[in-house]
Amino acid sequence: MSDIIFIGLSLSSILLLIALGLSITYGAMGVINMAHGELVMIGAYTAVLAGLHLGLNLFFALPLAFVTSGLVGLVIERLVIRRLYGRIIDTLLATWGVAILLQQLIRLEFGLSFFGIHIDGLGPGLQNMTVPAFLTQPLDVAGMTIQPYRTFIIVVTLMLAGLTWWLMYRTPMGVQVRAIMRNPQIAAACGIDVRRVSALTFAYGSGLAGIAGVLLAGFKTVMPEMGASVVVDGFLVVVVGGVGSLLGTILAAGILGQINGIVALASNDIIARAVVFAVVIALILWRPRGLFSFKSR
Predict the structure, then answer these.
(1) What are the CA-CA distances from residue 234 to residues 32, 95, 133, 166, 189 (Å)?
(2) What is the value of pTM for the model shown?
(3) Would you give the distance in Å from CA 4 to the centre of its chain?
(4) 288: pLDDT confidence band, cut at 50, 70 and 90?
């Protein structure tokens, strides 16, 4: 039973990190970012390359992936999304194109092979991240088997969720983000630099996606297509929890992660995803705006 709980909580934690960025950016900017999964993938590849070429372990890879994915997200916002605010369908199509472009760049090794330069360990092949040995040995505590790496994922997620809450509700920047969520036009009229705040918000959400990629790489294979499925799971959490609701995002991630973990162990991953989708559909029919949506007009 403890194994099921830990698996569910670790899946919920990664879902939460992915969904936090989506919830904040969609709530503040009205942007459906289909490239969010590729930012997760970039975080995972950053961890792989950091281990291969810099000799950095998991703990150093986490901040490095946050910065790398955050910078990539900032570039995407500046070059693409900034020109499409208020056009949701256009942002969906544009970021979908960006997602495909990022996948192809990884497959082509960032195009460096065209110039005769090869980065060892980066490319279309499957990659794996090495997890420190002390995080892979199960521990018996009071008759319960504790998985150290999954516990580490839960602790990191709780810390980042707490940091996000503090930034959103205890800092001037958070006040500005919440004002933009409510009404960007009124926020701009009150002197808030909407474009600057939106860019920083997008970069922060992208950085969280990068950290999720590192944690995911600890027990999943790293490949260019790994972001395609996780972005769908992230959007499911956002829809169930309610756009712009931090509490709703946390609870939705916990609910869906536990359902997926329990059903997957009882049957298989395919049935688990089908059950998750069925639950999401039922919740949408019951609460179309999400469980804890406070955004209204």
Answers:
(1) 11, 15, 30, 22, 33
(2) 0.87
(3) 23
(4) confident
